[in-house]
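Thread: Modeling a multi-component assembly for a lab meeting

Hi all, long-time lurker, first post. My supervisor asked me to bring a structural picture of a complex we are working on to next week's group meeting, and I have zero experience with this. I have the sequence lines for every component (911 residues in total). Could someone generate the structure of the whole assembly? Inputs are pasted exactly as I received them:
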Amino acid sequence: MKTTIKLFTLLFVLFAFVSCSDDDEGPNLIAVESNTASNIPAPQTGGQGQPVGGDFTKFSFATGAVTTSDTEWDLAFRGTTIALNGGAVTGTADEPARNGNGGVSIQTGTFASITSADGLTFNQDADGAFAIPTGSDNGWYNYNPQLFLVTPIPGQIFVIRTHDGKYAKVEFLSYYENAPANPDAMSDPSRFYTFNYTYNPNDGETTLAL
Amino acid sequence: MSLNKNNLAIYFLVFFCSLSLAQKRNEQKNDSIITQDLEEVIVTATRTIRQLSSLPLPVTLIPKKQLQQTGVTRLNEILNEQTGIVMTPDATIGGGEGVQIQGISSDYILVLIDGVPIVGRSSGNLDLSRFAIGNIKQIEVVKGPSSSLFGSEALGGVINIITEKPTTKNISGQVSHRGASFNNQNTNVSFNQRKGKFGYSIFADRLSTDGYDLAPSSDGQTINPFFNYTFSGRAFFKASEKLDVFASGRYFFQEFDISPSTSEEKDANAQLRINHSPSKKTNLQYEFYYTNYITDERTIDPIDDELLIENDFDQKLFRPEIRFNYSFGPENTLTVGAGYNFESLDRSLFAEQVTFNSQYIFVQYDYKPLEKINIIAGARFDNHSEYNSQLSPKLSARYQLTNHFAIKGSVGSGFKAPDFRQLYIDFTNAAGGGYSVFGKEVEVAGIQRLQDNNEIATLQVNSSELGEPLDAESSIGYNLGFAYKKGKLSSEINLFRNDFKNLIDTRILAAKTNGQNVFGYINRESVFTQGIELDLQYNALENLNISGGYQLLYAYDKTQREDVANGNVFARDPLTLQTLQLAQSDYFGLENRSRHTLNFKAFYEVPKWSANGNLRVVYRSRFGLTDRNGNGLLDEFDDSFVDGYAIVNLSFGKTFYNHYQLQVGANNLLDFQGENPLTAQDSEILINPGIQLFLKLNVQF
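Re: Modeling a multi-component assembly
Sure thing. I ran the full set together rather than chain by chain. Output:
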């Protein structure tokens, strides 16, 4: 019993020591933050064979909120379509101008297993193609035609380079209001994004672990 | 005088029908086992008449007596009570029911009437409730691949409905009416006669019901009210000892009452078979078969009478076939056959009517190299106008170790040709959001057309891959069985494994500018099913027959299993909604497969009261309906599982004054209703409509 306590004390001291030394390495860096963005509305007009339109809802990782700024945004949502502030306009109606240097690299794993943006290749929006591809099973979601449900594909982690060159990772959790565990396409309002994200606010820093 | 003759015939018939089990048992007692076995012969396993118990293949035989005593009216109901055969609901609510054998789904199971194939599948699924049970001698089910004899579709097994031959000199027949819950009314009448060289039988059946609803809180009914008619007629002519002719026709018509919309289904078959035995050793069979399956669906807006969807389907098959049997000795038969399939399909979702032609030849040698060993070797070659030709071999053997114990094993291959839909569909779902589906033969032109209209955002496949021909889906099946039979007990255990490759799956060809996808077909999936089937039968008392069956089943997609093992598959935690990595134990396997299925049956007769009763219980363990969390496979985190359940069926019958039989019963006696997990909030969807009582009166003359 005593030995166990001793062992734990030793482990704790060791752990505290190691942790301290980590903090000491970058005293000037702002802490990496992890948050959940809930119920980001993404309305659209048209669809079901009609031309799709309507403004995208823009989101900024720096503020962790929806923004109306034409320049200070990173991701923008309309229906199941996600735009990046990087690259060129795709040609769809009512889309925001791209004036940043954003990009996305789609990774596979659990959210925790993606720890860095180092060495990844980033894609940008381009004429005729979103960097996060549209359509079921192509990009971030899977559409179940029997249940009429849009479900984020599990294991798809989106490493984002923000419009101003910082890094974040995103895991989409739900497309339905209040992110119900078992959404019902008939009664739960859709086009509400809920996602977890980790944002490193330090310029050029690729670490995405807390 | 003639009255006497009549009575004699009727007496014979009633005696035969109601007491044949007792009779059989007496014979068994008095004579050797062989006498009993001789009565149970089947034709599906080898296309020659063979004793059931001597076959080297796993076979299920459902005799007429079981059909009568259970009081069932449709093929699907009786199949569900057999070991290793499961009727599975479609994942979609209100969708059809499909038969599953050894874990292999309905798409890969061939259904025959008197040896000729039925056409008319909806999304690959053949609706077995189309087939009325009446005038049927027996139903034969051969498990495992049988493409070496029957060609395409015979991967999981073959179900063959054998109709009855007339036996009585004077006109005999029966009229019956069965009323059941949900206003299910079934009337049928049949006549049979055999006079000299000529024999005929006529059968007519009408079924109507108000249908039922599994989702009471939502609009509409799960099964809408419908009625259907089945007419069939058969004629037999024995020109001489060496030549006989058989002709048959069947017509089925069904209409759903979904006013103002309409839904009709028609199914017609005609068969002519000439059986010629020029010598004692040789036998030639010439067979001509034609079938036509038609559905007409019109979905009409109830408010403004606008035609929303028109979906028509018209499939035809004409098939001449010739078979030649030569007996080198009493248990030494060579069978050679050849045939030609002319198939066509005209469907609303196709650009034009499409046709298939295929030719085939098969050979089978059934012999006994030693007294106790039987070997059947066969192969079939199919040449097809639209895809690669197929060679399907099969080898089976049986070794009678002792008088009571036998070992049997077989290895065979099966295939399924790409169907019309996978080759020719050209469909854009305007109502469903605007996605498109192209069959293999039309995908190049289809993509080009969309590109010309600027509807394609990005092509997801290499353009050189477009239009590459599809291969047939194929399988290899292995069966190893042990049979033990002694006294009142007969038992059989069978181990099976089926490896499927080149299964046709849909894939995304391109993303459209409207955010939807263009789908095409590709040979991709490899799956396997394996398990154990166990059958026990025990004649506990002279008039009590108890039987039980069990199937253990493992059914997985090989690629998915590997992906899970490699840690590349993820699911979503239902509480935090966060991604987690799937463990091997989280992968449930293929949809709609129960690990355990069980059946128990007890049939009891009281000859001095001319009465009988039976109790049948069918259980299937938990199964999943569909992937719900977007990782493309069925795992423990998908909220789509149906808990295991049992259905109990009970029926009693009694004969009065020799001619009148009264039957009462309950299907799903315990009123199991279950709960479908794919239900919407605040509503309920059932698995089963609940208890169904029935009363049936049958008059024989």
